Model the fold of this input.
Amino acid sequence: MPLAHTTKKTAIIGARWGRAARWWLLGAAVAVLSACSAVQLAYRQAPNLMVWWINGQFNFNDAQAALVRQDVDAFFAWHRQQGLPELTGQLRRWQAQARNDWTADQVCREVDWVRERALQALDQGMPAMARMSLQLQPAQLQRLERKQAERNQEFREDFVQGSADERLDKRVERTAKRLKQFYGSLSAEQEALLRQWLARSPWDAQRSLADRQRQQQDIRDTIRLVQTRHGTRPSGDTAPAPAAVQSTLRAIADRSLQPSDPQARASQEAFVRHSCAQLAAVHNSMSPAQRQELARTLGRYADELASFMRPD
Done:
């Protein structure tokens, strides 16, 4: 069953696994490629984009940048061998289900599949993340904090500022745009249905912003913690980080997935349930022609990605 929300900020249901470790592993998004009209080109450019994004967060020196380039290339070599066959097969399965009605439970099971592959990608990149964490300088962590603040301001502008009606209008516009990439044009009735579901969503922008800031602080604090416990290393050091560093960093994602605060955990679960039901309801409103367009789009993505698995 396809997920019209995959990556591209994981808009409809992506909050289920939070934004922990986004500071490094943009490659987790590769496991659920964004709704791009040229998936093949997107995948081909992904290593360069990943290096560019990571460097933008920290402003690496030459030795660090060379190591990041090496690690990113190794990650994509792994993904072409291990991730693409699974992803392509899943796209085929979603393609086969595109013409059927969906239930909320079915959608949530597919969300779980996406989450598991994202965490698999995270674990694959964890040794590189741990090694680089011990090489980060205070100025680089300060740069990370500034970048996080910039993204938080963008979030405020997109989701917090303005009246309730204005915020809802923006959410409807964004979500409808993503759906059109898969289904084609939407009817007025379908856009009205989407608005009704988004208006009833338990998602709260202010709470989400507070969660983002908490997770960002957790990332910075955890990096400083592992540096205090295990020391720092010179730039470009290729020696593996201790296993304890990896487990400490990995715990960031675990805390995002399972908030310790019961109210936060309940809020997260309510949002996921609502979002699964929302996607199922909107899909079930689609005409046979729209579902056929979804099937064609998913099949095209699968074909384009499969080309990377063939020998040169």
